[in-house]
Structure formats: structure tokens, C-alpha cells
């Protein structure tokens, strides 16, 4: 019996391919915000039998890479795919010469904060009122209003 990880591949999305907005909107509820960083980013998709089931977006800023979006289809969550995506992003960042990898998440994103810290990311900043300032509608997760962005970084040296 093969594991889900063995049945999947990760590749860069080609410019002529359809953007997996259904996945990206799981992590960022604003198409406007997603579209603001996509032109400057690379999108990577995780496929199982040619079906896209997860994705992440990398934005390069000088010698630093930021994961702007990372999402797994709900039917496949809790199976280690988020960890695989984070490891893939770190590997690509390191191979490209980046010294650190950053990711931001909401103060209400408890599972994500747990996952990121388990993968070696450390909290380095809090962007107060980021989500209440940049998003027109309130966002709630886990019964908590998402107000602040928690910024985490992973050293790649």
C-alpha cells in the first residue's frame, strides 16, 4: 500500500494553466489580494493522479522568499501535505540562494501556527490590525476574529 505522499508530485504551474483559485481562496478569502501578489510570484501545485489538490505561492523579495499562500483541499487535509509543501518551498528557496523563508498567518489560524512552528518557523513580528485594515469583511476562524498577521521566518543557512 502506498502513502498519499508517494502518489503526489509538486511542480511549478505553467503561465498558460488555469490558476487554482478554489485552493488559494481557502487560505486568502480575497481575490483582489491574491491577484495583487500573483504577477510577482511563482505558483506550485501538488497533484495526485493529475488532479491539483494543494498549492503554494512564493514571492521573491531581494534575498528572501515569502510564502504568500498555502492551501490543501479539505478532503486531503491532515495527511501531511502541508508539511510537504513547506519542505518543498524551503528546498526551492535554499536552492535559489535565499537566506530565509517567511510566511504570515492570522492570529486565529491555530492549526497553521502549530504546523509552521513544527517545521522550524519562528514568530518574528506581529502586523497589528492587518486583516481588519486590508479586508473589507471580518474573517473568523476557530471562533476568533482574525485581526493581526503573525509573521514567521525560517533560517535557511
Automatic annotation (TrEMBL):
<feature type="domain" description="N-acetyltransferase">
    <location>
        <begin position="8"/>
        <end position="142"/>
    </location>
</feature>
<dbReference type="GO" id="GO:0016747">
    <property type="term" value="F:acyltransferase activity, transferring groups other than amino-acyl groups"/>
</dbReference>
<keyword id="KW-0808">Transferase</keyword>
<keyword id="KW-0012">Acyltransferase</keyword>
<protein>
    <submittedName>
        <fullName>Aminoglycoside 6'-N-acetyltransferase I</fullName>
    </submittedName>
</protein>
<dbReference type="InterPro" id="IPR050680">
    <property type="entry name" value="YpeA/RimI_acetyltransf"/>
</dbReference>
<dbReference type="InterPro" id="IPR016181">
    <property type="entry name" value="Acyl_CoA_acyltransferase"/>
</dbReference>
<dbReference type="Pfam" id="PF13508">
    <property type="entry name" value="Acetyltransf_7"/>
</dbReference>
<dbReference type="InterPro" id="IPR000182">
    <property type="entry name" value="GNAT_dom"/>
</dbReference>
Amino acid at each position: 500500500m502506498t502513502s498519499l505522499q508517494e502518489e503526489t508530485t509538486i511542480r511549478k504551474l505553467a503561465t498558460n494553466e488555469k490558476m487554482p483559485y478554489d485552493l488559494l481562496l481557502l487560505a486568502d478569502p480575497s481575490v483582489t489580494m491574491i491577484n495583487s501578489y500573483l504577477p510577482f510570484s511563482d505558483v506550485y501545485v501538488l497533484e495526485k493522479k493529475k488532479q491539483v489538490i494543494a498549492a503554494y505561492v512564493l514571492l521573491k523579495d531581494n534575498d528572501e522568499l515569502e510564502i504568500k499562500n498555502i492551501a490543501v483541499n479539505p478532503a486531503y487535509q491532515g495527511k501531511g501535505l502541508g508539511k510537504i509543501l513547506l519542505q518543498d518551498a524551503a528546498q526551492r528557496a535554499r536552492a535559489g540562494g535565499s537566506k530565509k523563508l517567511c510566511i504570515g498567518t492570522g492570529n486565529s489560524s491555530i492549526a497553521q501556527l502549530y504546523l509552521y512552528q513544527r517545521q522550524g518557523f519562528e514568530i518574528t513580528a506581529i502586523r497589528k490590525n492587518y486583516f481588519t485594515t486590508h479586508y473589507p469583511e471580518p474573517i473568523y476562524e476557530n471562533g476568533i476574529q482574525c485581526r493581526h498577521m503573525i509573521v514567521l521566518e525560517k533560517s535557511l543557512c
